[in-house]
Write a structure and sequence with these properties.
The chain is mostly helical and about 280 residues long. About 75% of the residues lie in helices and about 0% in strands. Strands 1-2 form a two-stranded antiparallel ribbon. Strand 1 and strand 2 form a beta hairpin.
Length: about 280
Amino acid sequence: MIRFLHRNLQIYYRDKATVFISLIGTLMIFVLYILFLGDLWEHTFDDIKNVRHLIDSWVMASIISVVSVTATLGNLGIMVNDKSTQRIKDFYSSPVKRSDIAGGYILSATVVGLIMSMIMLVLAEIYIVLMGGPLLSVGALLRLTGLIVLVSLSNTSTMLFFASFFTSHNAYTSAAGMIASFIGFIAGAYIPIGLLPKYIQWIVEPLPLFQGAALLRQSMIYGMFDSSFIGMSQQKIMEFNNTFGITTQIGKYQVSPILSLIILVASIAIFFFLSVWNLSKKNQ
């Protein structure tokens, strides 16, 4: 399994074009934010002190959640390509268990998602500091790192289950491209969730991807609310939180951080189990 993991990682990182394509979704969010969205949200909430620092942290947290999806999709293309070229039959004919082969694909996708997410965290902190924002404390960074691991595992398991159904590399590439294009909307990065129609909010907010992004946003702006919202009403703070998906609601029910964590853990267990079962089937 470990050798298969190394093989998949080498293939992924050796192909610079694939790595770049995996990052297109996050680059689109960042470029749009720099050119248009940042100023728009800053002017909309100009009564909040240091609002640009809050928005910077908000978008960086969203980008971190998105990159764990797009990078994983890029890596899982190796698995689909192995199916498409029938190379996977050579692996199955070797004295290696099918579960070990499936585990190699799972581990490589997980490792890539974690690596790219952590790199994005470092770049996000550099950007925020360069823009005059505060550097997260050691405790906040450790908490955020733990969340990134959990969010990355959840997003990886979901994308793995999605990829396990494909046997055509061209079909997978097209489908993955569509997901990469829309993932920013699902994570609430392009348009804050509170500005979308109610029926869209009902669909998006229960998803593990959105719940994970919300937890990352909470952690990224940790400690900034006391100074930014000083003298403001609780209603104003709640409006900002709900608009930008820092806290989440399903209908009128306010989702607690504990429930968000439970949703992420449940998604990891369910989709990893389904993925291993699907990849290990004899007809694959």
